[in-house]
Structure formats: structure tokens, C-alpha cells
Amino acid sequence: MKICVVGGGLSGLVSALELAGTHEVDLFERKPVPGGCLGSYRIGDYWIEEYYHHCFAGDTALLDLFDALQVADRMVWLRGSTGYYVDGNIHPLTTPLEILRYPHLTLMEKARLGLLTLRSRRLDASALDGITAKDFILENLGSGVYSSFFEPLLNSKFGDRAGEVSAAWLISRIAIRSDRGAGGERLGYLKGGFRHFVARIEEEAARRGATILSGTPVEEIRREGGGWTVNGQAYDAVISTLPPQVTADLAGLDIAKIPYQGAACMTLALDRDVTDRIYWLNMKDRAPYGAVVSHTNFAPLEWYGEHIVYLASYFTGMLPEGLEQSMLADFCRRFSVDEGEVHWHRLAVDPYAGPVYTTGLRNRLPDYEEHGLFLAGMFSPPNYPERSMNGSVVAGQEAAKRVLARYPDA
Ligand SMILES: Cc1cc2nc3c(=O)[nH]c(=O)nc-3n(C[C@H](O)[C@H](O)[C@H](O)COP(=O)(O)OP(=O)(O)OC[C@H]3O[C@@H](n4cnc5c(N)ncnc54)[C@H](O)[C@@H]3O)c2cc1C
Questions:
Q1: Are residues 10 and 38 in the same domain?
Q2: CA of 244 relative to ligand 1 center, distance in Å
Q3: Does ligand 1 lie within 6 Å of residue 36's CB atom?
Q4: What total of structural domains would you count in the chain?
């Protein structure tokens, strides 16, 4: 059988990998190289992700795939420290002592927050799909914790849709990020970058016979007799990993929309650390970015020879005009960096960087098969209530499984 996979992010690559060898597989990727949100830049002699990435101990499908593709020897478990930038000051929030010293929450608020963190692992996050994060926090932790702690985080992540985000998303984030010891969260990374993982999937899929057509956007998906045509070529089955509304437009099918947000992420390099050795610094003060993620306060500096910093920003609708200049100018002013100190900077923009986990989304997620078309991606159930590399691996595997169940032989 001839199978077409649309999109060369993690979901599409994994689907192609699973199907190659049994079926003839063509993967169409719009960009010059596959990887999607897990794409990387080559800077001198190292690779760095366009968007900050780490993985978690519970990412079993991802870790198993690292093993199967022989990249597990690159796996390192590191500590990720956190902090909050408030009123022009950096507040470390990693150790219990640092949390106790944080001046913007009362002792009682900290105790309630700590209890919720402990409880979060036992709560069924998806059962909280119908209640907003805001209402949940107001009810359980009070308005002080909401306004001085969670509201800025929700605003920086979801902008003007922050008020619609469900408690399912928030609780799953708290639970996943509570795997921490005294030195910070335990987070995984691949030495040399996740680029090696993407390259290995591509290499292995090609070795099994898949054809990866990079730089080849899909412009049309049409039903043709019992099968499909994609850009005019005939296929027996199609797996689309694009957002449901994009697939719906390309295929002229009625598939329900999922609310999405865009990401604009600046990566830059410096000679020095500017976030007091903190990996993940959330911004409470208003800035054109919601977090400063100092990659080299997480991965060892000697791998790169320069400090690498991400400025993370999300948007809905159009990319705000002049964002690149305003991000850089604000960062330099706020962290006392002369623009001449910035070795290089790049801005990655993806208008479909992830779903907005609004209330009720759980029941609106598309099925793996709609109108005879297979679908897998950031909108699939394994990526609810937060998208992840692990979720996209599982979604890609699951879609391939369904194609194999329908077409067991070539
Ligand atoms: C800012 C950011 C930070 C993240 N951090 C983490 C993290 O720390 N840990 C973690 O586990 N996960 C993280 N993720 C999530 C993770 O990157 C994603 O879940 C995963 O990479 C998504 O893969 P995907 O294939 O489902 O979607 P995508 O990566 O979006 O892949 C879709 C692909 O389709 C291609 N495409 C689009 N239109 C067409 C067309 N017409 N024709 C052909 N191809 C097309 C796109 O170019 C893209 O390659 C992060 C994501 C972002 C955006």
C-alpha cells in the first residue's frame, strides 16, 4: 500500500518510521528540514533547538524510542532551577529556603501552594477540563496566589485567552514540574541536542524505505475513488499531522477546529550569564516575552562555549509587529546587556505552536480517523492536557498502528 504522511514534525516522522518496511511511505514536509517544533539551528560546531526543550522521567515512549534508535547514550539528567522576575528583581525559587524567602507570597499562601503541588500528582487532571484555571486557583488558593503567582504565568503563556484555559492544563503542569529535589527539577536532555534524535528517526525511516520529501508543502489532499491524492499523487491512505483546521482546508473536509496559539522564540548568545544561574526565569513584570530560559544554566556551558538564552513569547492571531526588535531591546535594557555583547540572535516563529487548552477541549479533540483520513499531532489525546515530545511520539505511533490494522500487508 502507498501511504502519505503530511508534516515532518515528531508525529509525522514517527508515523513514517512505524509504517516504513511494511508499506511504501512518502512524507511531505514544508520546511527545508524535518523536525517541526523540534527543529534546531546549527551554530558553528554545535546544534541548538529553535525552541527550548527538555524531557521528563515519565516520558516512557520517548525514552524507549531513544533506546531503539541508539541515542540513549546521549541522555543526561540535569537539574533545572527556576525563578521569578518581579519589580526588576530576580527571585530564585528552587530550594525550600528560596521559596521561604520569596517576598511576594505570604507564609500561608506558600503553604497552600506547597500542598496543592503535593496533591497535584494524585488529582485526575482531565476531570478538571470543565473549570478554568483561574476559578480553580481562586477557589483553592485565594486571590493573592492567583494575582501574584499564576495570573502572570497564564498571561505570558496564553495572552488574551488566559482566562479560558482549563484547570486540567494547570494541574498537569504543576504535577509534571513537581519532580524536584533541592537543586531543582530533574529534566532530561540529549548531549549534542535533540537534533540527533530527529536525524536518527529520519535516517532509520529512510533505511526502511520511506521517502522524506523536505521543502515540499502539501497544497491539496483530495479523495479519489477508494483512496486519496496528495499534490496530485495517488495514495491508499493519508496521515495528516497538521492542525485539524489546516487539514480541513487542504482536504475540503469538515473537521472541528482546535484553538491554537503561536510561539515567537528568540535565541541569543552571550559571554556571560545574566539570570543568576537560574534556568527558567518567569517574568511577572510586563515584557515582550514571558520567560527567559538560560539553556546553559541547565546544559553544561562547555558544550557550547557561549551562554545561550531563549526569550519565550506566545501570541494569538498575528505576530505583533516589531516583536524581534522589541524583545531584544527590552532584554538588553532589563538585564544590562549591551547589544554589542550579543554574539548572534535568531527568532523562530510558528503560528501553530500548540493548542490553547480551553475548558471543554477534551471532548472536542479530533479522532485518529475523521472522514477516512488519519490524524495525529499536538491535538491528539496523548498531547492532552499539554503537548510534548512524548505525546507526539505516542500520537504518531498510534496513527501508524491504526493504518497497520486497516492495511496489515503491503
Ligand atoms: C516553544 C515550545 C517549547 C516546547 N518545549 C517542549 C519541551 O520542553 N518538552 C517537550 O516534551 N515538548 C516541548 N514542546 C512540544 C513539542 O515540541 C511538540 O509536541 C512536538 O515537537 C510536536 O510535533 P508534531 O509533529 O506533533 O507537530 P509539529 O512539530 O508542529 O509538526 C508539524 C509539521 O508539519 C509541517 N507542515 C505544516 N504545514 C505543512 C504543509 N502544508 N505541508 C507539509 N508540511 C507542513 C510543519 O513544518 C511541521 O514540521 C515545545 C513546543 C514549543 C513550540
A1: yes
A2: 14
A3: yes
A4: 2
